## 1
Amino acid sequence: MHGASSPGRRRFLTTGAAVLGAAASAQLWLPGTARAAETPLPDGVFSLGVSSGDPLPDGIVLWTRLAPDPLNGGGMPDRVVPVDWELAEDQRFRKVVRRGTAQALPAFGHSVHVDVRGLRAGRTYWYRFRADGQLSRTGRTRTAPARHTSLGSLRVALASCQNWQHGYFTPYADMLDQDPDVVLFVGDYIYESAPSSAGPRRHEGTGEPYTLVQYRNRYAQYRTDPDLAEIHANAPWVVTFDDHEVDNDWAGEIPQDPDKQPHDAFVARMTAAFQAYYEHMPVRATAFPDGPHIQMYRRLEFGRLVRLNVLDTRQFRSDQVTGQAAAQDPSLTMLGAEQKQWLLDGLHDSPARWNVIASQIMMAETDILLGEGKLWYYDAWDGYQVERNALLEELRSVRNPVVLSGDRHFTMISDLKEDYADPSSRVVGAEFVATSISSNGDQDQAAFHAQWDPLRADNPHWKFIDAHRGYHLFDIDRHGIDAQVRAVDTVVGPQATPSTPAQLRVDAGKPGVRLV
């Protein structure tokens, strides 16, 4: 939790952890332990840095991937490589509490996922990896608060949509300065678009990725952004994907362009994309992909302060429709029956003060037709009206629901209404659609407002809209949520100046959001 006291002095000597996608060794690692003679690894095996994720009160996932030649398949020999890891209560590793050895396997790109357990709740820890005498950078992470605590506060950063070709990931430099307890990333970690010389940076490769090696190279390129690497190394992440991690606007097993991607070919592409996603994200073994399927929706608890429900709005959805009447078809689903019931059960049974839904796409209505009538974006929840409206009705009986979304490439903060067809219907919650990290580049602000401001009369639930690049920052306590829209002045260069275009507040027990 933000501002938590310094770690206590108790020292744990137990070893071991569950290692994801690889076998774990029970051997206790001591510096200088001899290894069997092997051809030395190339220099720079930790070029992709370190990260952590999915914090529990007693656990955290630690991640790295060995890749001395990251943009060309990784550059590792075709053999299993032991990777030692250790986690400590101090940055100098004088109080090591857990250590062990993971096996980095060629089949999984020599990625390493270590699920460390037996930790103390609400604590800061430091961690590092060692392979063949090479030492990674030191990472810092935090466990979730104790299960039954509702005191203190939690600082959450919300991010999405980082297109390498549209700009540098400069908002992360400011995010690092804000020191969040957890980073919530709701989709479009990479873009699958072909290389272009139109922007400040160029994608690697010669076209879109389709194979496992091609997706690995694309993820590796994104991982080399210095600001992204720093925030990964200094805060735990909770991630989910949207469409560009596979293919623009895909739904279920249907690609954007089925006339150009036959079903079997697209299934092979999904299989490659999901494995590369797993290999580069700090997620647990529950997310280990099964061919063209991956388990991504899950629930994380931050004491009794916040229950975080992370959705998957891609794998189980019906294909997008293209018209207003079709969007109101009751057979359409965004979540699928099983995930929808899981979400409702988790919302209604929650002991938490705040019930947060991480949705890749916007839930509140966006009416883009000026004046009489309505026109929607059918890839968002507006294209799945019946299921969306039923969920909004359920939120009436949920304690303090808040939806955190991405996808739009601009900030749009709204009241969630029980029935958007009735402007007088009750407010049931709040939604924060975060702007993009870099997608759309340095947008023309005047042109944006000329297009969108006239639509505000048709969308009275919108409380704030803005088109700067950046992210959202939330300070959550039992009384309310203080939200900041954090923006940067540019992403076309590697440095930027941050600002706060807006501050907003959600009060506990009072559905909706207001500017302050």
## 2
Amino acid sequence: MDLKLLDVEPSEAERVVVDLFTGMGRDQLLPALHAVNDRVGWISQGALNHICRVLHVPPAEAYGVASFYSLFSLTERPAKVVHVCVDLACQVNGAKALCDRLTVELGPAGAKSGWLRSPCLGVCEKAPAALAFEAGEVAKEQLLAPTHAGEVIAVAAAGPSPVDGGRAEVPQAGAAGLRLLKRVGVVDPESLDDYRATGGYAALRTALLLGPSGVIREVTDAKLMGRGGAAFPTGRKWDATARQPVRPHYLVCNADESEPGTFKDRLLMEGDPFAVIESMTIAGFAAGCSRGYLYLRGEYPRALHLLRNAIARARERNFLGENIMGHEGFSFDIEIRRGAGAYICGEETAIFNSIEGFRGEPRSKPPFPVESGLFGKPTVVNNVETLVNVPVILTEGCEAYTRIGTEASTGPKLFCLSGNVSRPGVYEVPFGTTLGELLDLAGGVPPGRELRAVLLGGAAGGFVRPDELDLPLTMEDARAAGTTLGSGVVLVLDDTADLGSFLLRIAAFFRDESCGQCVPCRIGTVRQEEAMHRLVGKRPLSTSAADLQLLREVGQVMRDSSICGLGQTAWNAIESALDRLGYAQEAAS
């Protein structure tokens, strides 16, 4: 390929890390960008030129990819920077006051001051949160959660500490009857022996005895639905992929949970990483995949450390690699791919583009991933929570599994409680538990406060009023009630919450995270935010009735004609606040 490059050369440090990718293909573009960012803290024109030479990627396309992700910078910034979350859970737990203090002490957010405003960091149970990063020969990252201005100022000056070896915490740790969370906070997540002593790899052994079709039959009979929000039957997806004659088949574990208020997958990866690896191996066996990719959001340094360890230990003991567990002919391995700050990459086809070295933009469907997915081959995509249900099904049996939950929504479900709640965290309950029972489990709102609303499903979800707490938490009951469980977000707002500011943050989130590929979403999210600013600010030039009508028209267009779920759901939460919570009347008053 005849590349036309600018006359700018990389530094010696940049050249060294990029040369490690010599002889590799375009699918290494994102890892190469990470390598440069980890080494020097930003991506210079010289580094981008050299990446293009080594990987044979057109410069315009490489620039498009590098500029797509929020964790990368194409303008010079210090080696040390702190990303301070300003998203939903942090917003209602003091993020504004934290940022105000940092502005006074360090200056306005930006590269010069050493701190940046950030979307959700996925540690909503410990809000407010920040992520400290320092580039170098060995890059260092540290999640600060919960944090305060003094800590952020100190870490901005001194740099982050190495990833700690502490255990993940869960309010139900050690409770009887847990299945998905039974090891979290109890078992050493770095020890394969501890994992096996608590039943680890028994499910894979069962899978190898059942054979691929037997595993698929068990998962299908268990009625396991996807836990990422779409609720597609997992067995059907695996079966459709397994039947494809084209080879190879791929498995992608979607661990890019970037929905504000979602952190259950992080907890599973940090607290039970071997379960994630075993579950992926079973899925790969069932669907005929020889390789799996775990696409991990870039803001999870501790999960990255623990998953790398789990993969290495599994390879050592023949739980990954060639002829796994002595099963002749079954070979499967896993590669971690780090995201770099893009909510849209949680969409299943956007993940494919990101892994392949393109902008993380969704693809039109059909063809569906089971026919043509990663690298154009049949691909299974499941999120972390969906996958870790599979060992439960294989060890307890599909009939026992279906007795958990309801007839249509079977099994246990993880919910992420955050916001104004006494004991935030991830909770495991059977499908069918009511919202009120779940809130009671988490201690309800803090003493002396009253519940104002609950946001179900995150920024793409909908609100529930205090008089609707008898809602059974199932896929079908949520749909009937005009809302959604989504990925399991339960974000609680008490009577101190500023609903207007909260809705503005939702509107800003979708504007920022739109990939810009389709006009309805690219323009609609901007118009939605503009109208919300006028409504919330009650500006004289605006008439509330006109803006409400504009919001409804724009929202409907996005829902009907956007390419992917981001644009199709960008209006959901705002619409439910207007109609279900009566914010339309509040804004008009």
## 3
Amino acid sequence: MTDPSDTRDTPPRPFSPLWTYLTGVVATGLAALLTAEIRLGLGDLADLARTSLFWVLIVLVVLGELRPIVVSSSRLAGGTATSTLFTFALLLYHGLSVAVLIHALALVVSGLVHRRAWHRVLFNVSQVTLATTGAAVVLAAFGHHPHPAAPWVPEGTDIAAVALAAVAYFVVRGLLVCGAVALHERRSLPRVIRTSIGHQSLVYAALLGLAPLVVVVMSRSPALTPLFVAPLAALYFTASLSVRRDHQAMHDGLTSLPNRKLLIVRTEEALAEAREDVRVGLLLLDLDRFKEVNDTLGHPVGDRLLQIVAHRLTHSVRPGDVVARLGGDEFAVLLPTVRDATAAREVAARLRVALTEPVRLEGMTFDLDASIGIALYPDHAPDFELLLQRSDVAMYFAKEGRTGVEVYLAEKDRNSPERLNLLGDLRRAIGRGELELHYQPKVGLASGMVEGVEALLRWWHPERGPILPDDFIPLAEQSYLMRQITQYVIDTAMEQAAHWWHAGIQVPVSVNVSARDLLDATLPDLIGAGLDRLGLPPRAIQLEVTERILMTDQAYTADSVHALVELGIPLALDDFGTGYSSLVRLQRLPVCEVKIDGSFVQRLGKTVDDERIVRSIVDLVRSLGLRSVAEGVESDEVAQRLQDMGCDAAQGWRFAEPMPAGEMTDWLGERVGAPSYGRCGTRGVTAL
């Protein structure tokens, strides 16, 4: 039942608050231990060593340290060593020096057996020494000074002295330990005290209350002293059975991490203690492609992989953070205190770095990766259930966008009330004619000819005014409305293209399509029927698809893509440079145009790296026999740089902003010139 998230053996950072606290306690405790041992003469110690009782007590104290009584599965509560009973009895009978000497020996032995860090062993020795010293001071106040040469056996009239000494021992030891736990876990001291003192006070009361009886037996019949092991063993096994059941109910059986039940408890505790200047963070983590491991190598290998993941996660978070397994390959990380979303992202990045180190199992090497969603209290949710839901939403955004880490954003959440209202408004907007197309020209940089126009969807909301495409297109893509919008855009763009072509303005109209549109088997039929109805050649319409979509295996093999190619519809690769394209696949794709993403173009002349990227893309596209178009061109300087690089065409505010169909018709009408066919089989009109 070891807790994989227990990091108490991790050395504290030098000069941190925890390091300073431990150093102070250890220094004080070791000084008290040294002072107490100086008072114990070698002769007294030699006399004690000749008695069998002395060695029996050493064995009992050591065994008590090795097997503490644990009455709660909470890491804050910890366990209570049964050695406390015999140490306190030694204090009453033989005095402070003998008690702290034997208990310090037992703590060192226990530390070696359990492989505890030395800073933890030294702290335990020091806090026990200080607690025992505090009890000895109380006894001295009542005039009792036990010594090996003059043992003290309490009488009935000494109950008050013994009780107050026990209270002093419990209070000093409890406060010292709670202080260390509070600093290590980064929790408030009152909370740690409430969590741990209640569980341990009853056990301490039983152990310290039995100590005077042990003293009486030691003084009259030393051979009977080991009999106290029997009730202690019964108490130990009863408590262990209860804690084991509690642990099984609150922890995952495979990884021993907290499960959902315990995560709820820990989160509610963190929310109850949250301060105004900090946040509570919940991270939801899902392994990428883990199902492939189970399907290929079987569940036993998958289980071992999950155990490795659990180990890496627990050793990558801060002390006090909680790593839980929710089921399958899904984990959650609770940050009881976090400064802001940036700090939460740093934790998430650290987790991903820990997971990306290759794992070798069954003679194979696995490269792990994960998608992480982040939600914060009170920014995103007021309780656990909403935190979990919204971190789940953010996680799926990270998985879909392949970004690795995402923080929850209400405007992206299709389940939020605001987005649901916007979705309803969008559905009504389609029927009310609130959607319209604007058009932006693509101009040849060398010839100055208009080589095409791109259709851009616009929505004017009757109450909210203009709504940006980035605010409603992703929403539509996640709903049933995308097909209706696509059909509206294609029909409208084709009708406008027919109007221009039949008027002698023969420029192709580009339409952006989503992944769902591209893979829809009805798309070629829709376009083909429109071309026949309007008397348009296939080159009059061009489809623009983002690099992230078109470069996937599914799009590469889709029947709809091949049908579009057979129909003669030109395809353009949009936002090139933002994805992870294979050059071999790019060469084989049925595209005739590659559009360079505006984020690189707009930084031309500002950074050397972006200029190199754009130049490399232009050279690559030219070497493949394709046409390059730069997006987001806003100045003469950028246009000239692109022309010098050999870029074929550009679009942006430098040439014209997106215009409604009427204005675009007038703009094109003023620039009609001799037609010239481009590399995609398009004809142009003079632009400048």
## 4
Amino acid sequence: MTDVKTPVPEATEAPPAKPVSPIAWPLGIAGVVLVIVGSFLSWSYDKTILNDLSINFYPGGLQILAIITAVLALVLLLAEKGPLTRLGAWLDATLGIRTLGAGLTLYMVLILVAIGTESDGLINVNPGAYITLVGALAIAVSGWMLPLRQLRDMSEARLPGWFEILTIAVLMAAVLFAAAYALGLQDAWSFVLCLVFIAVIATALFRTGTMTFVGHVGQRHRKVLTLAAFVVAFLFPFTQNGSDANMSIANQVLIFGATAMGLNIVVGLAGLLDLGYIAFLGAGSYTAAVLSNSAFATVGWKPPFLVVMLVGAAVSATLGLIIGTPTLRVSGDYLAIVTLGFGEIFRFSMGNLDGNNGPNLTNGPNGIPGIPDLEIGGFNFGDEHAIAGIELGRFSNYYFLLLILIGFVILVFARLNNSRIGRGWVAIREDEKAAEAMGVNVFGLKLLAFAVGAFLAGLAGTIKAHQDAAVSPDQYQFIESAFLLAAIVLGGMGTIAGVLLGATILKLLPEKLRFFSEYRLLMFGLLLVLMMRFRPEGLVASRRRQLEFHEEDEELAVEIEEERLAVGEAK
């Protein structure tokens, strides 16, 4: 036999490296100086807008954010060429400089737009703003002139244990400060600009590889990270100066997050599309309302609240079993339509149980108002309390209770996700027929997902009824189910941190962006479209789903390469 030798392609020379411009690094340094100098000068002639940026040599809040961005750019420039080059060997300083420069340029353009629209035009823009804009452009141009580097594997980067724990503490403190500062901004433009700043910093941290390192640190010190997160959440009310408005928003975020976490079991793990999930939250709320001491409550039994929570959760779980048993034989679009119908049936049923169209259980469209505040062990959640001289109002009291609830919900989700049941749900989500062929009890696990998800939503609903002091059918419309589903898709299906982040974004932004009330849904739709285009796995991707998307991308790349070779051979 004659050996058939496979032709070996000739070695090709690597493309020449991009020449480094000698002015790139000095231009970046000059840009940093201009941004800092410009931020110490006045930006606006009108002191009534953007929290007063009209004072020279006394930077306001938005000017301080620009200075922070410039300082981070300076650190990356020194990592590229200077005393911090050892740091630059691990981080992609060039991508970070590009991101910070482009983001700061966008930030300053929005500053000019805000001053122009809030006052009598750009004539009210002072030279400091223009100097800062020029500095931002210089940083961006410098970043594009600098060459990219081959990075090391960040999983190999290890620091002393105490330093890694300190890194987690600093990161959590920064999160607490950012949340407190952003919620304290009452001006709509200032809030939007603060969000732009946070987005720019977060993107720069991801592109430099810093967050990859933080992710590995978090994996190595998972208990410390979890504890630090709950400490930050516990300290949050102490940063709000007794603001009931901000604490009310925080409570809505926690209720929304706990409910979304229950839906995450159904959608994120089991892969069942539920468009009527808000009904389970409503079932828990109505159960707590009819068993409360409200003058409009229609049930004479008044058990302790812990019993009410269990009853409300059990009622919701029962509804989950009732709707799940006949409908889980269908899947996909048909399941979505059936669950959507169930959500509407629940809402109309609560409106009809008024004594005329049915038994008098819910007072019909009027709902059940006047629900008194909770009182557990002599502690009245409606009273103000002072801790370390800081006044904590009614919403702060409910916040701590909701924090305990969401901790329990996270624990349940994490344990189920890592259990045999969770692996069964994931198998059903990936391929139901294959899972059934391997002996997985598909119908039973689907039903369990509905029941457990509804149970967790019912728990959240019982607290929501007392915090809102009233329940009515119009609180549980289809749009709320759509927002819950969007929070999971936006944050990352099957994850904990992602769903909580998505719930925070979708509950916080509509409250703080009432200035854009006519365009809020448009912005929401654009956000989801961009997410589906650029990051379909969500803001915080599940490891399983991330591997799936990477495998799909690799398969697509292989198909494209094979097609290209076939076309070349045909020619």
